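Reopening this ticket.

The earlier resolution said the output was attached, but the attachment link was broken on my side. Pasting everything inline this time so it's all in one place.
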Amino acid sequence: MRSRRPCWTISAPFRCEWRPSRWQAGAMCLLGLLGAIALLNCGLAPAAAWPAALLAVGHGLGMARRGLRQPVRRLRVPPAPAVAEVDGGAVQALELLERGPLLVLRWRSGGRRGQLLFWPDTLPRAGRRELRLAMRAHAVSR
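Inline output:
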């Protein structure tokens, strides 16, 4: 008779370091450039269109720079009875939203809300699957 393998009821916690996405920064630059092109091709007078186009490009570059300068965040999602942590602080109401290849992780900590956006360059496919499984193990059944 074969012996049975041990069946564990708990899994290891999910841990990762969130870093700013270069793809998101590139998208912000592209949106600023496309906004400038749209402003130059619409019916605005050139005296108003050129400054607005420069502002659009500058805003896109500023958003990209601000996004890349965000600090690295450490995330830990343990199984159900334990509390999830972001940067060592406990968080409540943790939820994961899937938007195609993007994952949005939202939470509340005290009276403040926070969120992390995982692009494909910050969390590969295997990591996204691992995060989804950890969220299912962490979720409390209603």
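Reporter confirms the inline version is readable. Residues 46-68 form the longest helix (23 residues). The beta strands are 14-18, 73-77, 85-86, 89-90, 92-99, 102-109, 112-118.
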